[in-house]
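Reproducibility note. Readers wishing to regenerate the assembly model reported in the main text can use the exact inputs given here. Chain order matters: entities are listed in the order in which they were concatenated for prediction.
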Amino acid sequence: MDLTKITEALIAGKADQLKELVEEAVNSKTNPADILNKGLLPGMDAVGQKWKAGDMFMPEVLRSAKAMSTSMDYLRPLLKDDDLGNAGSMVIGTVAGDLHDIGKDLAAMMFEGAGYKVINIGIDQSNENFVDAVKEYKPSLLGMSALLTTTMPRMGEVINSLKEAGIRDQVTVIIGGAPVTEEFAKEIGADLYAPNAGTAVEITKEYLMQKQ
Ligand code: B1M
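Running the prediction on these inputs yields the following structure tokens for the assembly.
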């Protein structure tokens, strides 16, 4: 099946059509991992790019994200049995004082699609909540998102708290959000910075492969 139709329906935010196309692809025995990697993820990536370029507006981005989410609900159980396997687990949240969750949820969705068990702790999460979640769930990845320049420092504080708790080395820390930069990530001692949700998984995979 032509997976570009899926990409196009996702960019257009046509949830019903998208779900039909995804079901059609599954029924025609297209590999679920291909549906995700060659249909849905390029679509979400394009949405991110269009948004950045000012070619898409917030309601459209939300429509696409909702459409992706609806299709992922259908695809997720099939992906778990697929060759993506169990990549590990991830705790992800938006830092204290920050209510933005669209990019964070997109990143969560991408990691989930790549086989991670994602524990999304939500928005406005205190530094302590991040540390407690790492202690409780023992994830291989900790993802933090910040959309405000005023809340970015919380990310460094969480990393320091992880160090103080003696558990910094147990997790790979990945950060993202519009004002966040690679330089900032280095400055605060994060392992990884992802400029967008679409590339976050790839960046993580490359890093983990190099680390092995
Ligand atoms: Co807010 N807001 N907002 N806002 N808001 C921004 C961020 C802002 C840039 C708008 C502006 O002034 N031009 C500005 C921040 C300025 C700054 O600090 N430099 C701003 C402000 C000032 C505020 C308020 C203070 C406004 C006010 O009340 N005076 C207030 C703060 C509230 C708070 O958080 N305490 C506020 C409130 C809100 C709403 C609640 C109305 C709403 C949020 C709704 C929601 O999230 N549920 C909102 C929105 C929608 C925006 C804009 C318009 C869009 C953000 C968004 O969702 N983008 C934003 C303007 C902008 O970004 N141009 C703005 C789409 C999303 C897909 O992109 O989140 O960047 P983004 O995620 C990207 C990457 O960054 C990356 O992947 C995604 C793409 O693939 N990414 C990760 C993000 N997290 C990642 C994590 C990863 C990996 C990648 O791994 C862990």
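We highlight two features of this model. The beta strands are 88-95, 116-125, 141-145, 172-176, 192-193. Residues 88-211 form a domain with the Rossmann fold fold (CATH 3.40.50.280).
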